[in-house]
Amino acid sequence: MAEDRAAAVRRLLDAVRAEGRTALTAPEGKVVADAYGIAVPGEALAADVDAAVAHAARFGGPVVLKIVSPDILHKTDAGGVVVGVEGADAVRDAFHRIVANARAYDADARIEGVQVQELLPKGQEVIIGAVTDPTFGKVVAFGLGGVLVEVLKDVTFRLAPLDTDEAAGMLDSIRAAEVLRGVRGAEPVDRGALAEQISRVSRLVTDFPEIAEVDLNPVIATPEGALAADIRVILAESVPKPRPTYGREQILASMRRLMQPRSIAVIGASNEPGKIGNSVMRNLVDGGFSGQIHPVNPKADDILGIKAYRSVADVPGEVDVAVFAIPAKFVAPALEEVGRKGIPNAVLIPSGFAETGEHALQAEIVAIGERYGVRLLGPNIYGYYSTWQDLCATFCTPYDVKGGVALTSQSGGIGMAILGFARTTRTGVSAIVGLGNKSDLDEDDLLTWFGEDPHTECIAMHLEDLKDGRAFVAAARETVPKKPVVVLKAGRTAAGARAAGSHTGALAGDDAVYDDILRQAGVIRAPGLNDMLEYARALPVLPAPKGDNVVIITGAGGSGVLLSDAVTDNGLSLMEIPQDLDEAFRRFIPPFGAAGNPVDITGGEPPATYEATIRLGLEDPRIHALILGYWHTIVTPPMVFAEVTARVVAEFRERGIEKPVVASLAGDTEVEEACAYLFARGVVAYPYTTEKPVAVLGAKYRWARAAGVLT
Asked: Residue 266, exposed/middle/buried by CB under 10 A (0-12, 13-18, 19+)?
C-alpha cells in the first residue's frame, strides 16, 4: 500500500513537471498529503459556483473558500481566501469575490476553480515545513504559525528524515514551547499528532528529492489532533549533482599521510628569498621536519643545500605530500604528474582559482584529483602546521608549541590571527590548517582525523560555509563524545538573500538552520573570533562538570552581580545553597559579608579567607563548579591569590577531586600575570572581565551535555 501511495505521488510530480510547473495546486497538495498520511480537513474543488454551493452543503456548517491557481502561490496576498462562509448565498458571494480578486491580482493567472474546505476548529496555529538547504539538504522546520510567522520567526530546524521521538523534541525547542503545553487554563495540544505530522513531512521530502519546499501553514493543533489548513509543495528547478564521497577509512588513510608524512615534495621550491617556494622550504628545514624533503625546480640543482629535481616524477621513492608553490596556471599539469606518481595529497598554496572567478581552472584541478585519487587541500591557502611532526608547510611565520588544540580556518588572514593568538597565549597546538577554497578536503575530513588523533584534545574551526553540511554533522557526532568541537561560522546573514517560495523557505534563508543543526550535532558555536580561540584554549584545561550546581565566591559584590548575570546568560544554574552549607560558608566570612550565592567574602579579607572558602567549595560534593571573583587589594595581592588558588586546586586534584574552576580578576595590571599563572595550572582565569570566564564555563557545560558526560 505504501508503494502504491508513493507511486501516486511520483505520477503526480511527473505530470506537474511535464507541464513546466514547479508549484502544486491545493488539490494536488491534497493528493500528496493523503498519500503520506498528513492530516488535512475535508475539501473539494469547485469548478463553478453551483459546485461550490453543493460542496459546502455536503460539509455542513461554515467552510473556507480558497482560489486554486498554479500561478498564485500566496493565496492570502491575492485576496483569494475567505474564512467562515455559511449558507448558499454567502458561498456564491465569496466564490465570485475570490475569482474577481484573483483576476485583479494577476490577469493572466490560470484559475482552475475554488477549493471548498471544512472549517478547522479553533486551536494553536503552528507551522510545519521542509526546505532544501544549500548546505544541509533536506531540513524540517517547526514553529509558531499564522500570518506573522515570518515576523516572529519562532522556529526550529532538524535534518530530515527524523522519527517521531526526534520530532517531539522539536516541540520543546521553540521559545513559545509553553504555549503548546497549555497556558492560562488552556488544554495542552496533542503533541503526538504534531510529532507525527513533522515526521511524515520529513519522510516525504526524503523520498522525493525533487521537492524543494513543503509548507503546512497553519497547522491547527488542538487537544484532539493536528490538521494542516493549507499544504504548499514546490518542486526544485533541478536536483544538484552529488559530490564524491569517501569512507571513514579512506579519509583516515589519506589524512594520516597528510598530517604524519615521511616524505614531502615542494613543487616550486626556490633559493630566492621572498618567494613562497623559498619560505616553505625554510620553514620545513628550520622547523626540524625529520622526514625527507624533495625540492622540485627544473632550473636548480639544489635548494638550501638539498638536491632538487626537475619534476616530481624524478623524485625517488614514495612521497606522501606535494606542496605547490607555483602560479595557478601551472598547477594542473604539475598535478597530473603528482597523480601519475601516486602521491595521495596535494597542498595547493597558490591563489587565482575560484576566489578570483577562475572556476574552470579550479574545476580542472578537481577533475584531475578525482581521476588519480589525489586529495586536494586548498587552493588559496597559507599551508598547514602539524606540530607533533615538527612540520611547518607554510609561507607564514613558523610555530612549534606542541599541545592539544587543532585549529582550522577558511581564511588566510584569520589563520594568521589564530597564529598570533596562539603565540601570545602560549597555546599548545597539534595542528593549524588552512582550507581556502575547499576544492576537495574540508572540515568533515579534518574532523574525522582530529577525532582520532591522540594529540588533539579540542578542535576549533573558522568557516564561511560548509560544502556538505550532512557530512560535517556526521563527523561532528562521531567526534563530540570524545572531544569538544568549536565552530566560528562567518557570514551569518549571507544566505538571507536566497529567494524562497514558502514561509518555511523564507525562515530558512538566514542563519537559523546553521544554528539549530550545529547545536544538534553537539558543536559549540562561538559568537566571535576571540571567543572561538579562548574556548579552544580553555576547554582542554577544565575538567568536565559532574552536575549543574555552580557557586560564585567573590571578594567584590559588584563582580558577584555581574558574574551572576553571566551565569544566566550562558545557561548555567546558580546553586540554591542549603542551610548547612550556608552556615559552613558563614564561619569563614566576616559578619558584613554575604553568604548565599554569590558568596561575598568582601575585599578586605586575607588570603586565608579565599583559601578556606575555595576549599569548602571543592570539598562539598553538592557543588559542581566554582566561579571566583577576585578584587585586587594589598591585603591579598594578585599573585598571592593566584598561588593560593592554584595550590588548593592542585591538592584536590591529587585527591581525585576535579571540578571546573574559573576566575575573574579585577585590579591593576598585576592581575594579568596572576591570570597567566592560574591558566597554566588548570584554573581558567581572565583579567578585567566577568563575562569571559563564565562564557568558557558555559561552553564546557554545553560540550559535557552534548557528549553525554552530563545529562
From this structure: buried
154 bridge partner residues: none
Which residues, 6 or more positions from 309, have their beta carbon under 8 angstroms from its beta carbon?
265, 294, 295, 296, 297, 315
Q: Could you tell me which residues come within 8 angstroms of residue 648 by beta carbon, excluding any fewer than 6 positions away? A: 611, 614, 615, 618
* Same domain flag for 471 and 568: no
**Considering its fold, how many domains does the chain have in total?**
5
Domain termination site, one of 82, 98, 119: 119
pLDDT, position 592 = 82
Cβ atoms of residues 215 and 502 within 8 Å: yes
Give dist(CA 108, CA 95) in Å, integer: 19
User: Is 52:21 a contact under the CB 8 Å cutoff?
Assistant: no
Q: What is the pLDDT of residue 500?
A: 44
Q: Which value, in Å, is the radius of gyration of the alpha carbons in the chain?
A: 31
Could you give the dihedral angle defined by the CA atoms of residues 616, 622, 624 and 630, in that order, rounded to the nearest 10 degrees?
A: -30
Indicate whether 172 and 309 sit together in one domain: no
**Residue 128: beta bridge partners?**
142, 216
* Sheet with 375-377, edge to edge strand ranges: 292-296, 263-267, 321-324, 345-348, 375-377
In terms of residue numbers, what domain contains 583? 549-706
Question: Which of 119, 145, 178 is where one domain is finished?
Answer: 119
Residue 55's pLDDT is what?
94
> Residues 263, 291: contact at Cβ < 8 Å?
yes
Helix (H) or strand (E) holding 66: strand 63-68
What CATH number has the domain bearing residue 296? 3.40.50.720
- Residue 499: inside a domain: yes
User: Quick check: is 22 in a domain?
Assistant: no
Answer whether the bond into residue 240 is a cis peptide, omega within 30°: no
Q: Are residues 492 and 533 in the same domain?
A: yes
Please indicate, yes or no, whether residues 643 and 573 belong to a single structural domain of this protein: yes
Q: What is the DSSP letter of 23?
A: B
Residue 173 sits in a domain whose CATH number is 3.30.470.20
Q: Which residues contact 503 (CB under 8 A, 6 or more apart)?
A: 127, 129, 145, 149, 150, 215, 217
Among residues 603, 604, 630, which one has the least CA distance to residue 686?
A: 630
**Which stretches of the chain drop beneath a pLDDT of 50?**
1, 494-500
Task: Kindly report the backbone phi and psi dihedral angles of residue 357, in degrees, each rounded to the nearest multiple of 5, phi listed first.
Answer: 90, 0
- Residue 8 is assigned to a structural domain of this protein: no
Give 31-49 pLDDT, tens digit per residue: 999 999 999 999 999 999 9
Which residue pairs, CB below 8 angstroms and at least 24 apart, start in 441-445? Answer: 441/375, 441/376, 441/377, 442/466, 442/467, 442/468, 442/472, 443/408, 443/472, 443/475, 444/468, 444/471, 444/472, 444/474, 444/475, 445/246, 445/251, 445/254, 445/255, 445/375, 445/475
Task: Dig out the grid coordinates for 300 from the structure.
Answer: 636548480
Q: In 10 A of CB 667, how many CB atoms?
A: 18
The pLDDT tens digits of the residues spanning 327-360 come to 999 999 999 999 999 999 999 999 999 999 999 9
- CB atoms under 10 Å from CB of 333, counted, come to 11
Cell of 185: 487554563
State how far the Cα of 478 lies from the Cα of 243, in Å rounded to an integer. Answer: 21
Would you say residue 325 lies in a domain?
yes
d(CA 507, CA 500) in angstroms, rounded, equals 9
pLDDT for 60 equals 86
Does residue 304 share a domain with residue 211? no
